[in-house]
Amino acid sequence: MSFTEESMEAQVRAILQQHSGLRETAAGIGVHESLWQLGMTSLASVEVMVALESTFDVEFPDSWLRHATFGTIFNIMGCVTALTESAVR
Amino acid sequence: MTWDSALVPTSATGVYLSTGDFETIVHGLNAALGRMASDGGRQSLRTPPVIAREVIEKVGYHESFPHLLGRVFARADTGTTTESDLVLLPAGCYCVYPVYAGARLTAATELSVEATCFRQEADAEVGRLRSFRMREFVRLGTAEQCLTWRDNRLAAARDWLAELGLETVSEVASDPFFGSGNRMMRMLQMERKLKIEVLAEVGPGQVQSIASANYHTDKFGRLFAIVDPDGDVAHTACLAFGYERLALAMMHRHGANAHRWPEEIRRAVGLGAAQ
Hints:
The complex is a heterodimer of chains A (89) and B (275). By secondary structure, chain A is mainly α. In chain A, helix 1 crosses helix 3. Chain A is globular, with a radius of gyration of 12 Å. Chain A starts with a helix and ends with a helix. By secondary structure, chain B is of the alpha+beta class. Chain B has a single domain, classed as Bira Bifunctional Protein, Domain 2 (BirA Bifunctional Protein, domain 2, 2-Layer Sandwich). Chain B has 8 helices and 12 strands. In chain B, strand 5 and strand 6 form a beta hairpin. The chains are: A mainly alpha (89), B alpha+beta (275). At the A-B interface, helix 3 of A face helix 5 of B.
Protein backbone atom coordinates (compact mmCIF):
# COMPACT_ATOMS: atom_id res chain seq x y z
CA MET A 1 0.00 0.00 0.00
CA SER A 2 1.36 3.46 -0.75
CA PHE A 3 0.27 6.90 0.28
CA THR A 4 0.99 10.28 -1.18
CA GLU A 5 2.48 12.63 1.37
CA GLU A 6 -0.62 14.83 1.24
CA SER A 7 -3.07 11.99 1.80
CA MET A 8 -0.95 10.56 4.61
CA GLU A 9 -0.75 13.93 6.35
CA ALA A 10 -4.52 14.34 6.05
CA GLN A 11 -5.06 10.93 7.58
CA VAL A 12 -2.57 11.54 10.37
CA ARG A 13 -4.32 14.84 11.16
CA ALA A 14 -7.70 13.08 11.16
CA ILE A 15 -6.35 10.52 13.64
CA LEU A 16 -4.93 13.27 15.85
CA GLN A 17 -8.22 15.14 15.68
CA GLN A 18 -10.06 12.09 16.95
CA HIS A 19 -7.57 10.54 19.38
CA SER A 20 -4.94 13.01 20.61
CA GLY A 21 -7.26 14.72 23.08
CA LEU A 22 -5.82 18.11 22.10
CA ARG A 23 -8.03 21.16 22.17
CA GLU A 24 -6.31 22.62 19.10
CA THR A 25 -7.87 21.55 15.83
CA ALA A 26 -5.43 19.16 14.21
CA ALA A 27 -5.46 21.26 11.02
CA GLY A 28 -3.82 24.11 12.90
CA ILE A 29 -0.91 22.11 14.30
CA GLY A 30 2.43 22.71 12.58
CA VAL A 31 4.12 19.55 11.32
CA HIS A 32 7.12 20.23 13.59
CA GLU A 33 5.10 21.40 16.58
CA SER A 34 5.52 19.22 19.71
CA LEU A 35 2.34 17.28 20.41
CA TRP A 36 3.63 16.59 23.94
CA GLN A 37 4.06 20.28 24.64
CA LEU A 38 0.58 20.91 23.27
CA GLY A 39 -0.64 18.62 26.06
CA MET A 40 -1.05 15.16 24.52
CA THR A 41 -1.05 12.59 27.35
CA SER A 42 0.61 9.17 27.26
CA LEU A 43 -2.81 7.54 27.34
CA ALA A 44 -3.98 9.60 24.34
CA SER A 45 -0.76 8.80 22.46
CA VAL A 46 -1.54 5.10 22.83
CA GLU A 47 -4.88 5.68 21.11
CA VAL A 48 -3.10 7.59 18.36
CA MET A 49 -0.64 4.70 17.94
CA VAL A 50 -3.42 2.09 17.77
CA ALA A 51 -5.31 4.18 15.18
CA LEU A 52 -2.15 4.62 13.10
CA GLU A 53 -1.50 0.87 13.13
CA SER A 54 -5.05 0.14 12.09
CA THR A 55 -5.31 2.86 9.42
CA PHE A 56 -1.95 2.18 7.76
CA ASP A 57 -1.88 -1.57 8.47
CA VAL A 58 1.51 -1.41 10.18
CA GLU A 59 2.93 -2.48 13.52
CA PHE A 60 5.27 -0.26 15.52
CA PRO A 61 8.22 -2.27 16.87
CA ASP A 62 8.99 -1.85 20.60
CA SER A 63 12.09 0.18 19.85
CA TRP A 64 9.95 2.80 18.11
CA LEU A 65 7.50 3.22 20.98
CA ARG A 66 9.28 6.34 22.18
CA HIS A 67 8.22 9.91 22.85
CA ALA A 68 10.12 11.15 19.79
CA THR A 69 8.17 8.87 17.42
CA PHE A 70 4.86 10.46 18.37
CA GLY A 71 6.25 13.91 19.18
CA THR A 72 5.35 15.67 15.93
CA ILE A 73 3.24 15.11 12.82
CA PHE A 74 6.53 15.10 10.84
CA ASN A 75 7.97 12.28 12.99
CA ILE A 76 4.75 10.26 12.84
CA MET A 77 4.67 10.53 9.04
CA GLY A 78 8.34 9.55 8.80
CA CYS A 79 7.83 6.46 10.91
CA VAL A 80 4.63 5.40 9.17
CA THR A 81 6.33 5.87 5.78
CA ALA A 82 9.27 3.70 6.87
CA LEU A 83 6.91 1.02 8.21
CA THR A 84 4.70 0.94 5.10
CA GLU A 85 7.76 0.80 2.84
CA SER A 86 9.30 -2.05 4.82
CA ALA A 87 5.93 -3.86 4.60
CA VAL A 88 5.93 -3.53 0.80
CA ARG A 89 9.40 -5.03 0.41
CA MET B 1 -2.94 -22.97 67.79
CA THR B 2 0.42 -22.15 66.25
CA TRP B 3 1.24 -21.39 62.66
CA ASP B 4 4.28 -22.37 60.66
CA SER B 5 4.19 -19.15 58.70
CA ALA B 6 4.10 -15.46 59.62
CA LEU B 7 1.27 -14.89 57.17
CA VAL B 8 -1.74 -17.16 57.61
CA PRO B 9 -3.63 -17.80 54.35
CA THR B 10 -7.36 -17.22 54.14
CA SER B 11 -9.87 -18.60 51.65
CA ALA B 12 -9.20 -15.52 49.51
CA THR B 13 -6.03 -15.68 47.40
CA GLY B 14 -3.53 -12.96 48.30
CA VAL B 15 -5.35 -12.05 51.52
CA TYR B 16 -3.60 -13.05 54.75
CA LEU B 17 -3.90 -12.83 58.48
CA SER B 18 -0.64 -11.78 60.09
CA THR B 19 0.76 -13.29 63.26
CA GLY B 20 1.95 -11.29 66.25
CA ASP B 21 5.57 -12.02 65.35
CA PHE B 22 5.02 -10.63 61.88
CA GLU B 23 3.28 -7.54 63.24
CA THR B 24 6.14 -6.92 65.67
CA ILE B 25 8.45 -6.61 62.67
CA VAL B 26 5.96 -4.44 60.79
CA HIS B 27 5.65 -2.15 63.82
CA GLY B 28 9.45 -1.88 63.99
CA LEU B 29 9.67 -1.01 60.30
CA ASN B 30 6.78 1.40 60.69
CA ALA B 31 8.51 3.19 63.57
CA ALA B 32 11.83 3.40 61.69
CA LEU B 33 10.15 4.77 58.55
CA GLY B 34 8.02 7.05 60.73
CA ARG B 35 11.16 8.59 62.23
CA MET B 36 12.50 9.08 58.71
CA ALA B 37 9.18 10.60 57.69
CA SER B 38 8.92 13.12 60.51
CA ASP B 39 12.60 14.11 60.30
CA GLY B 40 12.69 17.89 59.96
CA GLY B 41 9.13 18.26 61.21
CA ARG B 42 7.51 16.96 58.03
CA GLN B 43 3.83 16.09 58.09
CA SER B 44 2.84 12.47 58.32
CA LEU B 45 -0.66 11.27 57.48
CA ARG B 46 -2.58 8.02 57.93
CA THR B 47 -5.09 7.17 55.23
CA PRO B 48 -8.31 5.18 55.43
CA PRO B 49 -8.51 2.09 53.17
CA VAL B 50 -10.87 3.89 50.78
CA ILE B 51 -10.74 7.02 48.63
CA ALA B 52 -13.34 9.05 46.73
CA ARG B 53 -14.01 7.36 43.40
CA GLU B 54 -13.96 10.76 41.68
CA VAL B 55 -10.27 11.20 42.64
CA ILE B 56 -9.30 7.85 41.16
CA GLU B 57 -11.28 8.64 38.01
CA LYS B 58 -9.71 12.10 37.79
CA VAL B 59 -6.19 10.64 37.80
CA GLY B 60 -7.23 8.02 35.23
CA TYR B 61 -6.39 4.98 37.40
CA HIS B 62 -9.66 3.35 36.37
CA GLU B 63 -8.53 3.55 32.72
CA SER B 64 -4.86 2.62 33.15
CA PHE B 65 -5.42 -0.10 35.78
CA PRO B 66 -9.09 -1.18 35.73
CA HIS B 67 -7.93 -4.78 36.36
CA LEU B 68 -6.34 -3.77 39.69
CA LEU B 69 -9.02 -1.40 40.99
CA GLY B 70 -11.25 -2.60 43.83
CA ARG B 71 -14.70 -1.07 43.53
CA VAL B 72 -17.14 -0.68 46.41
CA PHE B 73 -20.82 -1.51 46.00
CA ALA B 74 -23.48 -0.70 48.54
CA ARG B 75 -27.22 -0.96 48.90
CA ALA B 76 -28.92 2.36 48.23
CA ASP B 77 -32.14 3.64 49.87
CA THR B 78 -34.02 2.42 46.81
CA GLY B 79 -33.05 -1.15 47.70
CA THR B 80 -30.82 -1.66 44.70
CA THR B 81 -27.11 -2.39 45.00
CA THR B 82 -25.08 0.21 43.16
CA GLU B 83 -21.51 1.36 42.98
CA SER B 84 -20.72 3.76 45.80
CA ASP B 85 -18.80 7.02 45.72
CA LEU B 86 -15.76 5.18 47.17
CA VAL B 87 -13.16 2.77 45.79
CA LEU B 88 -10.47 0.83 47.65
CA LEU B 89 -7.28 2.88 47.86
CA PRO B 90 -4.65 1.52 45.39
CA ALA B 91 -1.73 3.69 46.64
CA GLY B 92 -1.24 6.20 49.44
CA CYS B 93 -0.13 9.19 47.38
CA TYR B 94 -3.50 9.55 45.63
CA CYS B 95 -4.82 10.91 48.93
CA VAL B 96 -2.19 13.66 48.97
CA TYR B 97 -2.67 15.54 45.70
CA PRO B 98 -6.33 16.54 46.30
CA VAL B 99 -5.22 18.08 49.64
CA TYR B 100 -3.11 20.55 47.66
CA ALA B 101 -5.71 21.19 44.93
CA GLY B 102 -5.57 24.82 43.81
CA ALA B 103 -2.64 25.59 46.13
CA ARG B 104 0.48 27.57 45.38
CA LEU B 105 3.36 25.95 47.24
CA THR B 106 5.47 28.37 49.24
CA ALA B 107 8.42 25.95 49.15
CA ALA B 108 9.19 22.46 47.91
CA THR B 109 7.02 20.23 50.06
CA GLU B 110 7.51 16.73 51.40
CA LEU B 111 5.21 14.62 53.50
CA SER B 112 4.48 10.97 54.09
CA VAL B 113 1.39 8.81 54.18
CA GLU B 114 0.86 5.44 55.75
CA ALA B 115 -1.82 3.59 53.82
CA THR B 116 -3.77 0.37 53.65
CA CYS B 117 -4.08 -0.48 49.98
CA PHE B 118 -5.82 -2.93 47.70
CA ARG B 119 -4.95 -4.18 44.23
CA GLN B 120 -6.67 -7.02 42.46
CA GLU B 121 -3.42 -8.88 41.76
CA ALA B 122 -3.79 -11.93 39.52
CA ASP B 123 -0.69 -13.80 40.72
CA ALA B 124 -0.57 -15.63 44.03
CA GLU B 125 3.23 -15.71 44.45
CA VAL B 126 4.88 -15.00 47.80
CA GLY B 127 4.59 -11.34 48.77
CA ARG B 128 2.02 -10.46 46.11
CA LEU B 129 -0.80 -9.50 48.43
CA ARG B 130 -4.09 -8.01 47.35
CA SER B 131 -4.53 -6.19 50.67
CA PHE B 132 -1.30 -4.65 51.94
CA ARG B 133 0.19 -1.65 53.73
CA MET B 134 2.69 0.93 52.60
CA ARG B 135 4.52 4.01 53.79
CA GLU B 136 4.83 6.50 51.01
CA PHE B 137 6.93 9.67 50.87
CA VAL B 138 5.64 12.35 48.53
CA ARG B 139 7.44 15.38 47.12
CA LEU B 140 5.86 18.38 45.41
CA GLY B 141 7.98 21.10 43.77
CA THR B 142 9.80 21.85 40.54
CA ALA B 143 10.91 19.11 38.15
CA GLU B 144 14.52 19.47 39.29
CA GLN B 145 13.55 19.38 42.98
CA CYS B 146 11.49 16.25 42.48
CA LEU B 147 14.14 14.39 40.47
CA THR B 148 16.95 15.31 42.87
CA TRP B 149 14.73 14.32 45.81
CA ARG B 150 13.87 11.00 44.17
CA ASP B 151 17.51 10.13 43.54
CA ASN B 152 18.57 11.15 47.07
CA ARG B 153 15.67 9.32 48.68
CA LEU B 154 16.38 6.19 46.66
CA ALA B 155 20.05 6.25 47.67
CA ALA B 156 19.09 6.77 51.33
CA ALA B 157 16.54 3.97 51.09
CA ARG B 158 19.11 1.53 49.76
CA ASP B 159 21.56 2.56 52.51
CA TRP B 160 18.85 1.95 55.11
CA LEU B 161 17.94 -1.41 53.60
CA ALA B 162 21.64 -2.37 53.64
CA GLU B 163 21.71 -1.49 57.36
CA LEU B 164 18.83 -3.94 57.74
CA GLY B 165 21.06 -6.56 56.15
CA LEU B 166 19.13 -6.67 52.87
CA GLU B 167 20.85 -6.98 49.53
CA THR B 168 19.01 -4.87 47.00
CA VAL B 169 19.25 -3.90 43.37
CA SER B 170 17.46 -0.97 41.81
CA GLU B 171 16.19 -0.97 38.26
CA VAL B 172 14.06 1.04 35.89
CA ALA B 173 10.61 -0.54 35.85
CA SER B 174 7.14 -0.11 34.41
CA ASP B 175 3.59 -0.49 35.64
CA PRO B 176 1.23 -3.27 34.51
CA PHE B 177 -1.00 -1.07 32.35
CA PHE B 178 -4.25 -2.54 31.10
CA GLY B 179 -5.18 -3.48 27.56
CA SER B 180 -3.64 -3.22 24.13
CA GLY B 181 -1.84 0.00 24.99
CA ASN B 182 0.14 -1.78 27.72
CA ARG B 183 3.21 -2.25 25.53
CA MET B 184 3.47 1.40 24.54
CA MET B 185 2.70 2.79 28.01
CA ARG B 186 5.47 0.64 29.47
CA MET B 187 7.96 1.67 26.81
CA LEU B 188 7.19 5.38 27.28
CA GLN B 189 7.44 5.03 31.08
CA MET B 190 10.77 3.22 30.88
CA GLU B 191 12.17 5.61 28.27
CA ARG B 192 11.85 8.48 30.76
CA LYS B 193 12.87 6.34 33.75
CA LEU B 194 9.70 7.43 35.54
CA LYS B 195 9.58 4.33 37.74
CA ILE B 196 12.52 2.86 39.64
CA GLU B 197 12.08 -0.19 41.84
CA VAL B 198 14.26 -1.50 44.66
CA LEU B 199 14.25 -5.30 44.51
CA ALA B 200 15.09 -7.83 47.20
CA GLU B 201 14.55 -11.52 47.83
CA VAL B 202 11.37 -12.07 49.85
CA GLY B 203 11.46 -15.86 49.69
CA PRO B 204 13.66 -18.62 48.24
CA GLY B 205 14.40 -17.47 44.68
CA GLN B 206 11.55 -14.98 44.90
CA VAL B 207 12.68 -11.44 44.10
CA GLN B 208 10.17 -8.63 44.42
CA SER B 209 10.00 -4.87 44.58
CA ILE B 210 10.09 -3.81 48.25
CA ALA B 211 10.22 -0.10 47.44
CA SER B 212 9.26 1.87 44.38
CA ALA B 213 9.93 5.46 43.31
CA ASN B 214 7.78 7.24 40.75
CA TYR B 215 8.27 10.61 39.08
CA HIS B 216 4.92 11.80 37.73
CA THR B 217 6.20 14.87 35.85
CA ASP B 218 3.49 17.57 36.11
CA LYS B 219 0.56 15.13 35.72
CA PHE B 220 -0.89 15.58 39.20
CA GLY B 221 0.09 19.25 39.40
CA ARG B 222 -1.87 19.86 36.22
CA LEU B 223 -4.88 17.75 37.23
CA PHE B 224 -5.18 19.37 40.67
CA ALA B 225 -4.02 22.87 39.70
CA ILE B 226 -1.04 22.84 42.07
CA VAL B 227 1.51 25.59 41.42
CA ASP B 228 5.16 25.58 42.50
CA PRO B 229 6.83 28.57 44.23
CA ASP B 230 7.93 29.92 40.83
CA GLY B 231 4.34 30.00 39.59
CA ASP B 232 4.71 27.01 37.27
CA VAL B 233 2.66 23.80 37.37
CA ALA B 234 4.06 21.67 40.22
CA HIS B 235 5.81 18.38 39.56
CA THR B 236 5.52 15.44 41.95
CA ALA B 237 7.43 12.30 42.89
CA CYS B 238 6.95 9.58 45.47
CA LEU B 239 8.79 6.71 47.11
CA ALA B 240 6.78 3.88 48.67
CA PHE B 241 7.84 1.00 50.92
CA GLY B 242 5.65 -2.10 51.11
CA TYR B 243 5.47 -3.21 54.76
CA GLU B 244 4.57 -6.84 54.16
CA ARG B 245 7.23 -7.36 51.51
CA LEU B 246 9.83 -5.60 53.66
CA ALA B 247 8.93 -7.80 56.63
CA LEU B 248 9.04 -10.92 54.42
CA ALA B 249 12.45 -9.89 53.09
CA MET B 250 13.70 -9.40 56.68
CA MET B 251 12.39 -12.79 57.77
CA HIS B 252 13.84 -14.45 54.68
CA ARG B 253 17.23 -12.87 55.41
CA HIS B 254 17.43 -13.15 59.19
CA GLY B 255 14.96 -15.88 60.10
CA ALA B 256 11.32 -15.98 61.16
CA ASN B 257 12.04 -15.34 64.83
CA ALA B 258 12.94 -11.68 65.29
CA HIS B 259 14.19 -12.41 68.84
CA ARG B 260 17.11 -14.26 67.26
CA TRP B 261 18.07 -11.54 64.82
CA PRO B 262 21.50 -9.91 65.17
CA GLU B 263 21.48 -7.15 67.75
CA GLU B 264 22.29 -4.35 65.26
CA ILE B 265 19.44 -5.44 63.01
CA ARG B 266 17.02 -5.49 65.94
CA ARG B 267 18.15 -2.02 66.94
CA ALA B 268 17.78 -0.73 63.35
CA VAL B 269 14.08 -1.55 63.40
CA GLY B 270 13.61 -0.44 67.01
CA LEU B 271 13.06 -3.90 68.47
CA GLY B 272 15.42 -3.33 71.39
CA ALA B 273 17.63 -5.93 73.03
CA ALA B 274 16.68 -9.59 72.64
CA GLN B 275 15.34 -11.24 75.80
